[in-house]
Amino acid sequence: MDGVLHGFYTTTTFIDEHDLDTFVRHHLPYYSVPEKWNYLAAIPLTPNGKINKIQLSKVALRATKTVSTRRKSGFTTKDLYHTAPVRKVSHTTAVTSTKRKSDLNKDLVCSTPSPHDPEKGVTEISSIDIALTGSVSDLDISSIKEEDKPETLPEKKGLHGQRWLRHRAFILYRRFFTIVIIANVAAAAVILYRRVKKERPMLADLATATAANLCMAVLMRSDPVVNLLFTIFCSVPVSWPLSIRRHCARIFHIGGIHSSCAIAATMWFFIFTIGASMDFAKPLDLRCISTASIILTYLILVIFISMGLMSHPTFRAKYHNIWEMTHRFGGWTALIFLWIQAFFTTRDLTRDAGITPSQAYLHAPPIWFLTVATMAIIFPWLHLRKVPVRSEVLSTHAIRLHFDYTTPVVGTAVRLAERPLVDWHGFATITNANSKGFSLVVSNAGDFTKRTIGRAPSHIWVRGIPTCGVLRICTLFKSVVLVATGSGIGPCLAVILAKKTPARILWTAPNPEQTFGQEIVDAVREKDPKAVIHNTRTMGKPDMSLMAYRLWKESGAEAVCVISNKRFTTQIVYAMEARGIPAYGAIFDS
Q1: CB-hemisphere CA count at 13 Å for 559?
Q2: What is the rounded distance in angstroms from the CA atom of residue 270 to the CA atom of residue 262?
Q3: In Å, how far are 98, 196, 408, 510 from 126, measured between CA atoms?
């Protein structure tokens, strides 16, 4: 509610400033209580009949009638909607004020200047009917605990450069990346040493290094491998020290191994191409590499370089469909060429060794690495199917799809597609609490999601098995704060429905009831009665980092998990980590 102007008026009881402040502090959390009460004879309007926000901002900034708002108590969004429905103030509503209980039909306006822009101050005006059955002074407030209200985020820990290096430049994803690259540089030094000192040909070693990195890159995107790694690291008991569990929770950074191994494979293959070209330039009786091998080598190199360039984050984000098709069809083509090239080069390099080609194939490391990589690539397509789905249209912006073909683990995601060979999209699952199956929420964020909402499909393609995502790590903590924007509430709801990890929810969305349906909003309130649901249409855009910190401090949670877009996720995770709070959010590397 920060930065939002609220109008309050009583209908049956008439109270003074102190009593009303006591009543509000008894029913609202400490961070939602206004800092100042301002009494107005009427709401100022512009010549066009609209609310004059500039005048209200000036009133809000006056240092008059300031009351203490230090407290900490529970308040539910459900209470707000059920006992005090919010509605826009009519332009004809007369807001009068007094300090006496005997005056009739008095209206009170409370205001809080915007923390982002105090000059603009107010961003919204609404009125709340408060029907009182008795005097506010009769309320029992003995249980209210006074506590300093955090007005702003606390100071960051450590030095500025140190924070930047630790929480931005060298996050675990990049540390994985760095370790893999260093390991490959060390391997290159060993290969070069053997070439110089022992005069051993390098081409076989270069082919092995290429295949090993390629295999590892594929495995880090294989559903069974990802699930296995998550299961191992998320099985650490909550009795272990938080310092250990917070590092185990970063298992979702394994994408750094995928990208670094893919780049390393490309570099190794580039060096192999140079070596093969130098060998091919030798006289015919001295060369090892055949013409077919060198042609395939150049074709594969072009594909590798193209895939690597198109995987740059900027290009991938702007042309995601092109990147996806290039990655899929280019990868398949490169795999076929690699198999053919591996057989040719293995035969060429062992021609003078006095062994048969079949023996050479059985003892060639690249052949075995390619076998493992091929099996990992084929696996999800063995689980390709078109399954029935029940579509529940929530609004023109969102739809909920219900499946019953499997019951996934909490914190997993599935891939959906209209056209199996063209585009695939991952969505977090909401496991049904008391029955088989799951559901997921699709919000309008692109062509596929827009078409899905419009056509409300009865069948849809799925591929692979449900794969663990970032919220799978919630079981590592005794309690968490879940921060979601828009349809990100779906995976968060799955966590609290599972009842394995106590969780508090901070959810910001435009008109949540109208956009995502009353059922989802009620489910959030039912499972987390103290959930903070922020309507960005009526309350404006909040300071997500500050709200997340306040909820973390109030709830005493061990970690903060963020399900949002890249900008908000990066912003909130850094704000928390820089203050020593374990925070986690998707990496957006694929």
Answers
A1: 27
A2: 12
A3: 20, 79, 42, 16
Q: Do 430 and 448 have their domain in common? A: yes
- pTM across the whole model: 0.74
State whether 296 and 398 are in the same domain: no
- Pairwise CA distance, residues 65 & 56, whole Å: 15
Number of neighbouring beta carbons within 10 Å of residue 78: 18
Mean pLDDT, residues 167-174 taken together:
88
Q: What is the pLDDT of residue 102?
A: 34
- In this prediction, residues 131-149 reach a mean pLDDT of 36
Q: Which two tokens stand for residue 533?
A: 């649901």
110 shares a domain with 12: yes
Looking at residue 284, its pLDDT comes to 85
**112/121 Cα distance (integer angstroms):** 7
Domain housing 493: 478-585
Output Rg (C-alpha) for the chain, integer angstroms: 30
Boundary residue ending a domain (471, 502, 525):
471
What is the tally of structural domains in the chain?
Answer: 4
Specify whether 354 is located in the same domain as 408.
no
10 and 85 together in one domain: yes
Quick one: 233 and 294 in the same domain?
yes
Asked whether 561 and 479 are in contact (CB, 8 A), the reply is no
**228 and 267 share a domain?**
yes
pLDDT digits (tens, 9 = 90+) for 60-97: 766 444 433 333 334 343 333 333 333 333 333 333 33
Distance between first and last Cα of the chain: 35
Report the distance separating Cα 388 and Cα 580, nearest Å. Answer: 46
What does the pLDDT look like over 112-135, one tens digit per residue? Answer: 333 334 333 333 333 333 333 333
